[in-house]
Design goal:
mainly beta; Immunoglobulin-like; 2% helix; 46% strand
Length: 649
């Protein structure tokens, strides 16, 4: 997923954390992968994502803590609905721009200790629900009297104020609601000391594990979601008997990861600060080795390889990761929670992954292309073929063959509406896309904008790796057209310009243009090398559709189209059962008139229709309904007429 993060004024926002969250269609669970940060111009590009429903969570960097995504909390309790959710395809690229909003509410209150005395210097923030920070708000600290003010808070229900001070403990307020732009006052927060986290790290047979490393992520309301979180932390000591005591300075929810040489890492879900007698079980690791080759069998050096657990492994460690507490208050957890840190292939394409559980895993390999394969940790070495992804390249030229000048943009798209890559062409008209998958064809589009509009050129069915594309922007000129009624008054109707000799798919082969406000006719920007048939009227205008005689080239003298009022055919449209049909279409077929101008209308809730702008005399009618796809013959009727009864047989 690519896109751009901007602030409320539309300026680029650098350093914002973009987290894609996806939902598994089988289990209904959702998790994060492919997180990234926005660059200096606000643009971002995530890692590879699984296909399916996805939502982007964006954390604004300091000093922008008062920014939030309108209508979307920073952390999810349940998967949201449209418009925040979009579908990620199995391959390709999706563009999603994110514009952040500014919170307008404020929360005031006081932080005290267990004796009721004010606490100065405590950190204060706003949470959604039970331990999830987000939704804007500029965190601050309490003054000498324990008072605090958090501004730029997003509106919401069941918000809580949180406060914490190292050595003094932490606490949260009772839930409260905040309206848009509102203020909530007098929120009390009591700090209470919290006991440390205690427990043991053991092997799968229950024996103490020497040399283990422990990592604690504070304020992890969703648990660990990425090895990036662990990589930023300092390991905490574990005693020779596997026991540990960890002070949690801020309290609240945290998450734990434990690692040891020769073992599979274990990660937890959210844990309450002060939980005791935790038992962390590390399973023996099963190595996974292999090589990455390109499509021709040559080794691929520097490819990124990482593994994630399959659905079976995820289900196998559900009970441990849930950390259901027993009556005694202790809990076990085991199994990999966030996959394996990535490695790079060596000069011969070789790689070796450790810390994996024995059994099936899913390998991701990326290097100017990507592939996902199933493998078995502890099994024989694997050989992975990386598809030969390749860019498309070429030049954008003018009609004389010289490089196109001006603001030239190039777009490479999968199909007509699929994901796309876009970038400006160089000064010499050249362009090179990102590496593209070889499994499909692409549409390449070049456009140039000036004061008159856009010049556009297309190439279809382009294969990845094509290097010598030439897109020639057409020579453009203007068709001046006025539409008048029988008395010479100007009519605000669309005009159709149809070039029958244009190639299939030519963007200037068929132009249907609405008039500009204020009258004065229309300036239709068209290909100067093509001749056009010009027409107007019909559709729902009440006037007979009319095409001018002959063809006309752009740049010629102004044209006038004079329209006459047509006759009316009215009646009721029914389905095959004889019931009135709402939302059906009735269209008149007139020889020599393109489909864009044929008179048509829609039936109302009672099935009644009124078709205007038809020629007097015999008129052939066709019908269409949402129930029956495609146009159906309705018969020939003499206009004008009322009380017709059309039935879709």
């Amino acid at each position: 997923v690519t896109g751009r993060v901007t602030d409320p004024e539309g300026a680029p926002l650098a350093g914002a954390v973009v987290q894609p969250w996806s939902r598994d269609g089988e289990t209904g669970r959702h998790g994060s992968a492919g997180s990234c940060r926005s660059g200096p111009d606000g643009t971002f590009r995530t890692g590879l994502l699984p296909p399916g429903p996805t939502v982007l969570l964006v954390h604004a960097p300091p000093p922008w803590r008062g920014l939030y995504q309108e209508g979307l909390p920073i952390f999810l309790f349940d998967f949201p609905g449209p418009p925040h959710v979009f579908d990620v395809p199995a391959e390709g690229e999706v563009r999603r721009d994110v514009r952040l909003s500014r919170g307008s509410g404020s929360v005031e209150g006081r932080v005290v200790d267990g004796a009721g005395d004010p606490v100065a210097g405590a950190s204060v923030g706003i949470m959604f629900g039970e331990g999830y920070f987000g939704g804007g708000g500029i965190p601050g600290k309490t003054g000498p009297d324990g008072l605090f003010l958090v501004e730029a808070v997003a509106p919401g229900r069941r918000l809580r104020a949180w406060a914490g001070l190292s050595g003094a403990g932490s606490g949260t307020s009772a839930p409260f609601d905040l309206a848009e732009g509102g203020t909530v006052e007098g929120i009390p927060v009591v700090l209470l000391p919290h006991p440390p986290l205690t427990g043991r790290v053991v092997r799968s047979d229950g024996a103490p594990l020497r040399g283990a490393a422990l990592y604690v992520v504070p304020d992890a309301g969703q648990g660990l979601t990425s090895w990036m979180e662990i990589d930023r932390l300092t390991p905490l000591p574990v005693l020779p008997d596997g026991s540990f005591v960890v002070e949690i300075a801020t309290g609240g929810h945290c998450a734990i990861a434990a690692t040891a040489e020769g073992c599979t890492p274990a990660t937890s879900g959210p844990i309450e600060g002060g939980s005791g007698d935790l038992r962390i079980v590390l399973q023996p690791e099963a190595p996974l080795r292999g090589r990455v080759l390109d499509g021709e069998g040559a080794p691929v050096a520097g490819a990124l390889v990482f593994a994630e657990r399959t659905g079976a492994q995820a289900a196998g460690s559900e009970a441990g990761e849930a950390m259901a507490a027993s009556d005694a208050g202790n809990a076990d957890f085991e199994g990999p929670g966030v996959g394996h840190p990535p490695v790079l292939t060596g000069p011969e394409g070789e790689f070796s992954l450790g810390g994996l559980p024995a059994g099936p895993v899913r390998l991701h390999v990326r290097r100017e292309g990507s592939v996902v394969v199933d493998a078995v940790a502890g099994g024989p070495p694997v050989e992975i073929r990386l598809p030969l992804f390749a860019p498309v390249a070429g030049r954008v030229l003018g009609t004389d063959g010289s490089p196109a000048t001006g603001r030239v943009q190039v777009e490479v798209r999968i199909g007509e509406d699929g994901p796309w890559w876009t970038a400006p062409a160089a000064e010499d008209g050249s362009f090179t896309s990102i590496p593209l998958a070889p499994s499909t064809t692409y549409r390449v589009r070049a456009s140039r904008e000036d004061a008159e509009g856009f010049d556009v050129a297309y190439l279809r069915d382009v294969r990845a790796g094509t290097r010598d594309l030439e897109l020639r922007l057409p020579s453009m000129a203007v068709l001046l057209v006025r539409v008048l009624d029988e008395e010479g008054r100007e009519l605000p109707f669309e005009v159709l310009a149809l070039a029958e000799e244009a190639a299939p798919g030519d963007p200037y082969g068929r132009i249907l243009m609405a008039p500009a406000p204020g009258g004065g006719g229309m300036r239709i920007r068209a290909d100067a090398t093509l001749s056009y048939r010009i027409g107007a009227g019909g559709r729902t205008t009440g006037y007979l559709p009319h095409m001018l005689e002959g063809t006309h080239r752009p740049g010629g003298p102004p044209l006038e189209i004079r329209l006459q009022r047509g006759a009316v055919l009215a009646g009721t449209l029914r389905n095959a059962r004889g019931d009135p049909l709402a939302g059906g279409t009735v269209r008149a077929e007139i020889p020599g008139i393109p489909s864009d101008l044929l008179p048509q209308c829609h039936s109302d809730d009672d099935g009644r229709f009124r078709l205007t702008g038809v020629p007097p005399g015999p008129v052939r009618l066709r019908t269409w309904s949402p129930e029956r796809k495609g146009l159906l013959e309705a018969g020939t009727f003499t206009a004008p007429a009322d009380g017709l009864d059309l039935r879709l047989e």
